[in-house]
Each structure stands twice: as C-alpha cells, then as structure tokens.
Amino acid sequence: MTVLESTAIKITNPINGEIQYEIDEISAQQAKDIYEKASVVQTKIQAMSVSQRVTEVLKIRDYVIAHSDFILDCIIAETGKCRTDAFAAEVFEVTDVIDVYTKLAPKQLKDQKMNWPIFLMEKKSRQFREPLGTVLVITPWNFPFYQVIVPSLMSFLAGNATIVKPSEVTPLKPLWEHFFANSGFMRDAIQVVIGGKETGAHLLAQKPDKVHFTGSVNTGRKLMEACAKQLIPIDLELGGKDPSIVFDDVDIDRTVNGIMWGAFTNAGQNCTGIERLYVQEGIYDKLVPYLVERTKRLRTSHPNRDTKSAEDCDVGAVTAAFQVKIIEDHIEDAIAKGATLLCGGIQEKGSHHIPPTIFENCTHDMKVASEETFGPTLAIMKFKTEEEAIRLANDSPYGLSASVWSKDTERGIRVARAIKCGNVCINNHMLNEANPYLPFGGVKDSGIGRFKGEDGLLVFCNLKSVLLDKQGTLIEPQWYPYTNSKYKLLYAVMVSWFGKSRNWFKFIANVLPLDGIGNKEKFK
Question: Chain-wide mean pLDDT for the chain?
C-alpha cells in the first residue's frame, strides 16, 4: 500500500491536540490504477478455495492478537477513546467476527441445492454463490479499525477484491502500513486508500461492483444518489437516535448501570448508543437521581491521560472538532428550551473532553431529543403507559436500534415488536452488534440493507440461480407452437393442482398427456 504524503489534511490527536501526520487526496489516475490492481487480484481470489481464503483471514486474527497493544495505541491516538472501549469494541470484536465467519464461510459459500415445484421435478435447481468483483467499502471515523477490517474480510471470504476508503478524520495510516508489512495477508486483496472526499469521489467514479457504506445520513443520501446514476448497488448503515424504555418493575441498580454504559461508552459516539431515555413515572424519582449520582462517578478524558492504562478514563474524548460543535449546540439548545441540566454540560468551549451530560424535562422539539447528537448526552423523559412509551420511541425519523427494560419478558417482547427499528435489546443495550450471527441494519433514515448475520457473507455475493435439465428428445409443452389442446391441458392441470380442493385423479389424468404433447404437436 502506498500512502501519499502532503500537507492537505492534518490528522490530530483529540486528547492533546497534537498533529500526528498529514495526508493528501489521490488523483483520478491513481484511482484507476487501484482498480486495475483489484481486477487482477480478484481473479486469483475467486480461484482460491474457501478454505484457502479462510487461511488468509486467520492471518488477520493472528496479527491482531500479536499486535493488539500497537493497534490500540494507533486507535487511541486518532480517536481519543479510552483504552478499554477501544479494546472491547474494536480489537476483541474483530477476533470474534473472524472466529464466526471463518466457520460459517464453507457452509454459506458452497453451491446450494434448491427445492423445486412439482412441475419441475425432473429438473435440478442450484444456487451458485459467486463473488461480485470489486467492492468499495467506505467507513466512518468512530470505529476506524473494526469498520475497515470486518466488511473487508467478509468481502474477501466471498471472493471479492476490496478497496477501503477510511474516514479522513481517523485514517490510521501508521496502523495500515504496519498491517500490510507484517501480517502476511494476501497482497492487494484488500487495499486501504487514504484520502478525503475527492479520493472517495475518484474511487466511486471507477464504478465498483458494490458499495458498502457506514456513516451519516446526509453522506449516505449523496452516495446513494451517485450510485443510482451508475446503477451500483449500495448498503447504507446510517445514524440513529436510539430510545431506551424503562418500566417501573426493573432492578434499579442493574438497569442504571446498563443505561449508563449504553449512553456513554465511546463517549456516546455510537450510532446505536442511547440518546433518548423514557422512564415510567412509577420509578422515575428513584431511578433518575441514582443514574445521575452514578454518572458523576465516571472519569472523563483529559489531556494528561495515561492512555497505556486500562483505567485511564471511563469516557474518552470526542474525536472530531466538528462533532464537538454539534454536541455543544445541542446542549445549549436544550438549556435554552427549558431542559434541566442534571450533570455534565460544557466545561470548556471547544474542548474534546466533554463529561457525561444528562438532561431531564426534555421535549422532542429539542435537538438533544430529536437530532443525532453523537456525543455523551442523555435526554430523559417521563411516560405513564406502555402505549405512550412506544409512541414516543417511534416519534423519530431514525430507526436503528432501541432497548426495553422490564422484568416482564412478554411485555419486553411486545414492546420490542412495536418499536420501528432494525435492532432491539431487552434488558441490555447495543449488544446486537456484538453477536455476528444477528443481522444488523436500520429502517427509516437509519439505512438500507442488512449486514452480518447467519447469511452475512451473501451481502457480498452474486446469488446466481441455475436450473439443470437433461439433454434428450423431449419437447416441453410450454414451447412453440402454441395450440388449443396444450392450453386446455395446462389450464386443467392448474385447476386440479392449485384449486381450493386438490383433485389427484384429475391432476394425473391431465399431467400425464401433458408430458408428451410437446413432441406430439411440435413443428413438423
């Protein structure tokens, strides 16, 4: 992998503000050269057996385990995460996904024997699960290692060449250089192309066979429009404004600890983090003060952190300067519109070290309760009935994930069904993503398509339908020439077999002559 040096885009450590390095855009010609490499290597990948691809992917696992501290140092230097967040959500999760899909791949990717209707019983049906070709993966800045590795290795297992455009906010250039130099992974099978928006545009212009995008709603819309013009299929994993509903029968200690983690892990920079909390009135006055008291104990990031320690902080830094401004705007808007600040808030304007911030007396006309904040904020609202909680949870343009907390399992399942989203946890939050066997994705403005799951590798496959028939003398009855006698027999077969009451005698009486009528009435 060649990484271009320039002064165009500065990569900054959000913890201390130090510039790490600089990157530049690639040219249109460079993008073309990258795709030519992908085209050459893809034929080699497709020719490999699935077990050979699995062997390559296991090299990624071995690299991650052997170099986990280095990987964490690189991630923290560009994202500002606390070390435990970075380890759990990026390093550990990558090894888990590899373990799952290297086991699923042989079963998922082999040719499938398919069932057939009775009228095709003498023929065989198959499904070939073939590569698409070259897949372009465009990733966000909040999980820069996981979001590059996971879709790339899945695409590779399916037989594709993969080009990855990581976010220019957290491109992890030193990490990818080290990875390709030391992992032993197949050369050019996955190409990480570092650059900004122009780089992304150049890569898209080369017309990949598929785009897999994770990021903001606005960028997703623009990408979908651009892909539509070229008829490029695209998966969109977009943002969320996730609700969490707490009923009054819960264990307060467990529920508070779960909500606190769901809201503030990764400094709230999760598309599936809790941003809206609806608490039933019967438990509100007990749960909310307990939540605030516990939240105040969380250690917030600061410029002098010991990032080598697993206890450096509980809530890391906000990664991007533009995200700091959005979070500050949402906090100021909530206060201006009458929300009560219970803890946290803006301590220093422009600082990337924002403490966990909780509001009550919130309404849906506040940005903190309606727009994606993507930061360590939590808007609390009270509800009376189950129906009201569902209505409030669904009052959002987003539909990514949610959580329901209750000892009543039936109620939890009932509410989970009623919430319009792609993922729900009952008595937990966000762990859908931690189970590679579960498909992940959203509805409404939160995206299109699903990723991972039992059939997750098929996202990166061309599912080719194949019907095998015998070579012989039989002329099919539906072939030319069309005749009245053929038509009557076909109609009689349809009625006798598919009618309200299946008539076996009439069916046999009509289907037997149907088999030979093609030869009888063929062109002479």
Answer: 96
Are 133 and 262 in the same domain?
no
Total tally of structural domains belonging to the chain:
3
Q: Say whether pLDDT at 46 is over 50.
A: yes
Active site residue 237: yes
Say if residue 98 is in the same domain as residue 142: yes
User: Do 431 and 502 fall into the same domain?
Assistant: no
Phi-psi region of 111 (alpha: psi -120 to 50; beta: other; left: phi over 0): beta
* Residues of the domain holding 509: 474-520
Residue of 78, 90, 168, 237 with catalytic role: 237
* Structure tokens given for 266: 């990764």
pLDDT at 6: 47
Same domain, yes or no, for 130 and 216?
Answer: yes
With cut-offs at 50, 70 and 90, classify the pLDDT of residue 454. Answer: very high
pLDDT band at 4 (very low <50, low <70, confident <90, very high): very low
Write out the two tokens for 108.
Answer: 């998922």
Centre a 10 Å sphere on the Cβ of residue 260 and count the other Cβ atoms it contains: 23
Gyration radius of the chain's alpha carbons: 28
Cβ-proximal residues to 428 (8 Å cutoff; 6+ apart), any chain: 258, 403
Tokens of 335: 């206060």
Q: Which two tokens stand for residue 140?
A: 């966000």
Backbone angles phi, psi at 15, to 5 degrees: -75, -45
* Active-site pick, 74, 82, 227, 271: 271
Angle at 426 between CA 264 and CA 438, to 5 degrees: 90
